[in-house]
Amino acid sequence: MSDIDNKLYVAHAASPLYMNPKMVNRHGLIAGATGTGKTVSLQVLAESFSNLGIPCFLADMKGDLSGVSQTGAINKFIGDRIKEFGMDPASLVFTGAPVRFFDVFGEQGHPMRTTISEMGPLLLARLMNLNETQEGVLNIVFRIADEKQLLLIDIKDLRAMLDWTSRNAKEYTSIYGNISTASIGAIQRALLSLESQGADKFFGEPAFNVFDLIQMEGGKGVLNILAADKLMMAPKLYSTFLLWLLSELYDQLPEVGDLPIPRFVFFFDEAHMLFEDAPKALKEKVELVVRLIRSKGVGVYFISQSPADIPVEILGQLGNRIQHALRAFTPQDQKVVRAAAQTFRTNPAFDTEQAILELGTGEALVSFLDDKGAPSVVERAKMLFPMSQIGMITPQQREIIIKQSRLYGMYERNFDRESAYERITDERLLEQKRVEVERLAAEELEVELQRKKEDLKREKEFDREYRRSNSTQRRGNSKSALDKALGSAATSIGRSVGTQIVRGILGAIFKK
To answer: Which helix (H) or strand (E) is 364 found in, with range?
Structure first.
């Protein structure tokens, strides 16, 4: 809710507590145990920013935030608050905020996708829980893809690129270092695990344009709500996705300096998931983005159960604080409460540490930055109620809002243009055809050589036989004259002897 001076009225102590719009981009924290009122406080801030013309992004863990799209109404809780705050019910204007629903899986809102290349090796390594060596190999794969001008759009592109790099590892090892088969295999297995979590739907085209988040409708900033109930089942995917989105805002938006009101506010719910087991390089990147993104007119608000979930380097940059109750059942819990109390500027009217333990639902310790950017003295206050509906909407209401959005149909369609997978597949097919042609050519050459060998063998055998035949004929010709003479003599003698024998035989017969 905003008053006539454009101040953001969000809580009430002895008097109304306001947030200075100029200080909204100095970031903030909403902390507290489960069931203490963090979601309602988030809704109050978001609709107040919207009324002031500031678009926001929010992750909806249970569907509760969807009610911000509908007009609220007075109930018992709100009626009691109105009396406590001394408000005139007739002056209250209950209304919903302009909302767009998004969903990584495309089930409860417009799909939100990005490409493997836009995600980058650092966030992908975190998403796949790679060790330092495997992350190094992944960086090499991205470098080679850039050099070969191969687009990495979806998971199949990265898988094809990993396979290609593995088969050509010797060529690049001397340039970039060792590319082990074991590391490639580990990354491939991690990709398979990502697919089983549904990440294959997150990577693809059309890639989401972050400028579609920074929109106005009817003079109000659009509240972009991500359905995260299913995404929460994959905590690494959830936190990495939100960090990618925040990084894209930082990369895409121009420098604008300090504005009267920020261009955009990003709420990072369940922030502890971002920093759990996060490598040092990733934490440093988050710290850098949070520190510099305010110059681009963006405020970042972390929502978590305890301030201890946020690294100290980042916690020190969160100037606006709403601290709901914490529980202290163990010595470790007591340390957390003490640490949370020490982050506030002390109010002599009460014990901050003790107050954190005593706060009821909807109560909080509140400290906002003043006009000079200094934190105000902490106040124990009751949060204002939202002017929109508290609680979730029906699937039918959600569907109507989705289809009425000007983005409807823009991200619902998807396409798969030529990228690394197609290029590498084509190269492999061409290589297979080349190998096949060479194999057939070699076989034909072998057949031809074998035929020529056989022809040569036959020629040699023919020549040998021919020479043998000629030699026999010459020997026959040299003996022919003698043979004829001897033959003639033998014939003559034979006839003479034969005649005598015949005569002798016949003569003897006639004589008898």
So the answer is: strand 363-367
